[in-house]
Amino acid sequence: MTHGRYEHSFRAMNTRIEFKFQAAASGVEPLLLLTQNWFETVEQRFSRFRMDSELCYLNRANGETCLVSDHMLEVLQLAEVYRIKTEHVFEPFVLQALEGAGYSASFEQLGVNSLQSKQLYHDHKALAPSIAIDARMKSVRLPAGLQLDLGGIVKSWAVKRLASYFRKKRGVEQGLLNAGGDLLAWSSDPANGHPWSIEIEDPWNPEKELGVMSCSEKAAATSSKLGRRWHNQQGAQHHLIDPRTMRSSTSDTVQCTVIGEDPVECEIWSKTICILGREEGARLLLARAPGYEALVFTEDRQCHMYGSSASIESSWKSVDTGNFHFHGLMKNG
């Protein structure tokens, strides 16, 4: 049976979803339908902007124990793992801070210049309580008074879950799933037999390409402070909340791309580095996630690569900003 290379893209979860794969012509339409249905289902379950979503139901429970779906249980368990792994830099209890900064509706529906903020003061230590999870009963209890935003983990989780299903159950041997920069590539690009190539955008000029990531059996995720950004009476705001202040992060990092095996891990660490800043964030990445590498862009328009020197032309192809700094795999500053 002849197989061909196919591409499909659509919008879901407030971003562009892209699926490239090889399959028999007769199997293409079912795969495309599955892809769209999956991301629409994930959005319906986890969106903070849909009042009938499971996430909003949990947030309204205000400290009461709730039965949850298998998918919600899985994501909340992952969230707890990464809260600990990142020393609470990845923090899902930031919904009130996002809304307080003015991000109270889906971004494309907001008039960016009219976003209003509220004064919110939080003690970071007060966010220490964990989500009470009973896996056997499939129940959870959120700390009273705190509300979840799972936008920092759900896209990459959705990519990982669907890619695994396609590989194990649908026999898709070559593919690339990309949800707004959170991606997983497996095998090679059937167009040329080479690893998949993903463009690296210039943080300050999205139309410009700074280089190419070469991915085969690799995941990647990119986080940026420059995309979802607005101004209000408190100054520049963006969606990456620093849990130590419960305000938009003011670190030196404006964009970070992390590559490794797991798209969820990549997404968590790309956000962590953006929040903590280049040096502290990269130090934590290299200590807690061996084998993962980061390309960090700072506000002074410098580019910093943390990883193996062998990756510069194998994974990070032709990255050239004119201000490139290679730091290697150091673990202690």
Automatic annotation (TrEMBL):
InterPro entries tied to this protein: ApbE, ApbE-like_sf
Record keywords: FAD, Flavoprotein, Magnesium, Metal-binding, Transferase
Gene3D superfamilies: ApbE-like domains
EC number: 2.7.1.180
Reaction equations catalysed: L-threonyl-[protein] + FAD = FMN-L-threonyl-[protein] + AMP + H(+)
Pfam families hit by this protein: ApbE (PF02424)
Coiled-coil residue windows: none
SUPFAM superfamilies on file: ApbE-like
Cofactors that this protein relies on: Mg(2+)
A GO molecular function held by the record: transferase activity
Name of the molecule in the record: FAD:protein FMN transferase
Species in which this protein is naturally found: Paenibacillus aestuarii
Source taxonomy: Bacteria, Bacillati, Bacillota, Bacilli, Bacillales
